[in-house]
Please model this.
Amino acid sequence: MLNKLTVEDLPVEGKRVLVRVDFNVPQDQEQDGRVKDDRRIRAALPTINYLRERGAKVILVSHLGQPKDKPEDRIKYTLRPVADRLSRLLGVFVPLIPECIGPQADTAIAAMKPGDVVLLENVRFQPGETKNDPEFASRLASMVELYVNDAFGTAHRANASTEGVAHYVTAAAGFLMQKELQYLGAALTDPKRPFIAVLGGAKVSSKIGVVDNLVQKVDRLLIGGGMAYTFLKAQGKEIGRSLLDAESLEYCRKVLDQHGDKILLPVDVVVADGNPFEKGAANVQSKVVSVDAIPAEWEGVDIGPETRKRFAEAVQGAGTIVWNGPMGVFEFAEFAEGTKAMAEALANSGAVTVVGGGESAAAVEELGYSDCITHVSTGGGAALEFLEGKELPGVAALTDRPA
Model:
């Protein structure tokens, strides 16, 4: 953990504590916004319960989605379903305050007793949030005496409730934030070796920084998913209609020239005669082919069985494995076998395993392997930027520990 205050350093008894959580959770709009996946809510419970048990007055603040200034978005992006789910998880009623600043918020907070928890309405309903407006940040801070950031998933954004507020009140890291920094940080700075990284997902361009940083540190780098086809193209292979990040071709050639001995690419892939997102998985034909024989009108949708075997063998005996990005179009069961095989390989590796947030975290959860992974990150973009070696504004703004 960086040299920052943590929630355990704070004198919280009887204090009003603003806790930035990441309750940006998937919802079912056909079921009145009912929460479909409460992993991020559950991940915040240790910090919330710690504060409650020590007599703090806990004021939670979060965003949900990207609402515009439209009346219908006030309904679509309300945090009320989140407050309902949180109430059930905590076993106490958590009221949703219909604003995050203003007289209603002031009145509700003034009436709080030690151990109470309230949830402020979606902070992105305030235009000053994403602009990191100092006036809005100071108004948030004025309602409380202490601030805890437990929202790793938004730590890469310099918003008012993630970075700005920390300049006006003592600011510390919550337990989830500490856990994220501990596991991701250890993987980058002091990994148990061999250190293996597995990268997937769509475009190379979105992960150039990650590749640049990790390829210097790892013993092996396994590349699957959509981004593998640009690397295969850089090797001179024909990839049919598979995803190609043409602007990154030269970059891939350079990486392969400089670090090709570390990089493991697919040797076979599952290809389909159409895009499953456009046609539906049931309406496309698929087959396994060598990466040297991808048909011109077909596109890669998953890594093949031989590649799954080689990737699984590569991670056996590893000391640390970091995985970010699915191996194929895992949204469809027909093309999730590569991602499932990778999750199973990590679970059986005996290594310290860290799965970056976003799609890879969702895949591990959906496939039932999350309990077998050392740490599944709650942050997609934040995990990526951390793996790139970037400083996260929400972490940098926390109060330094006294020398």
